[in-house]
Amino acid sequence: MKYINFKNRTNINLLVYFAIIVISVVILTILDMNKYEYSYAISIIENSLVFAVVALSMNIVTGFTGLFSLGQAGFMALGAYTTAILTIPAASRANVYYMNGILPSLENLVLPMPVALILGGLVAALFAALIGIPVLRLKSDYLAIATLGFSEIIRAVIASPMMDKITNGSYGLKSIPGFKSSIECFAYSAILIIIMILIINSSTGRDFKAVREDEIAARSVGIDIFKTKELSFVVSSFFTGVGGGLLAMYMRSIDSKTFQIALTYEILLMVVLGGIGSITGSIVGAFFVTAGKELLRFFDEPLVIAGNEIPLFRPGFRMVIFSILLMVVVLFFRKGLLGGKELSINNFFVRRKPTKELSEGGV
């Protein structure tokens, strides 16, 4: 097999990624042109794209920095509610806040969707910066418990009566502007993923990885461990908040029950299944989990063969099949589908050039 130098491999990978983007845009354009016929497929794709953003944002703090944080649902809730509150049309707000009304200062405040998404991310990042000061001094399971508790506190506060005039309490929010097309959803997701890739491959990203590998060694070369962890936590939370805003756009209506603990576990499943510390693994994991659960939905419908109903097929059976598939994947891919590596052309068709020692028969 022909050896290709690093520069050529990088150029080939960039061309392949560009081709994937172009092909994706073409496919999504065709689907949008026939959106009534392919509405179900469009819905699955949009949902997968949203969770690809959130999964990669979780991987920044978990896979690339080595911090076991389980606060994603809380940060998504902050981003989703901020985005929804700032984008619900003014004419619809009376119907949304029909029980207790809305704060006068918010009654006619409507912002463009990109601005609202960024503000949602900033709100999530602000809370992350505040709680990161005490909780990031904790280790492993203790950090996970602390961030999980924070997530539940956020959810409880959102649904509390004292927040009725802002979040509409337990009644939730509706009439949220959705994606005009799947291309819009793809554009938002692609931009966010590209920015995260640039951060991961920057000097800041290398600091994250250094902390993950060995804190003592990282400190010895001048890396401030706590500041690096705090920055990773804040960056991850910002993109998680924006992802929450995208989820609000996708669902068009949200309430506090949307952001239960199970949501964080589902995102963690995507990260682990795709490969901890793998950018493309997070994207693959998001599509695998989101699309997989939908494509297996026929297992929930009764199966009739030759006039006889098979009792095994019943509501909820698809999750049994999906769980079995996950077990099989984990057994054969113990480090995830991509095993912490990236989905690139050289991993499939190009071998590394052997070192001088190996080529001469050395050890």
Number of helices: 16
Distance between the termini: 22 Å
Low-confidence stretches: 350-363
Number of strands: 2
**Describe the biggest sheet?**
2 strands, antiparallel
Radius of gyration from the alpha-carbon trace, in angstroms: 22 Å
Order of helices and strands: HHHHHHHHHHHHHEEHHH
Helix/strand/pairing category: mainly alpha
Instruction: Please state roughly what percent of the residues sit in beta strands, choosing from under 5%, 5-15%, 15-25%, 25-35%, 35-45% or over 45%.
Output: under 5%
User: Whole-number average pLDDT?
Assistant: 87
Lateral arrangement of strands in the main beta sheet = 1-2
What would you call the shape? Answer: globular
Range of helix content: 55-70%
Fill in the keyword field for this structure.
363 residues; globular; 16 helices; single chain; 2% strand; 2 strands; mainly alpha
Question: Would you write up a description of this structure?
Answer:
The protein is mainly alpha-helical. It has helices spanning 6-33, 39-62, 72-87, 93-96, 113-135, 140-159, 164-167, 182-200, 203-213, 215-220, 225-251, 261-274, 279-295, 317-332, 346-349, 356-359, and strands spanning 303-305, 308-310. Strands 1-2 form a two-stranded antiparallel sheet. A hairpin with a 2-residue loop joins strand 1 and strand 2. Helix 2 packs antiparallel against helix 11 (225-251), helix 3 (72-87) runs parallel beside helix 6 and helix 9 (203-213) packs across helix 11. The protein starts with 5 loop residues before the first helix and ends with a helix.
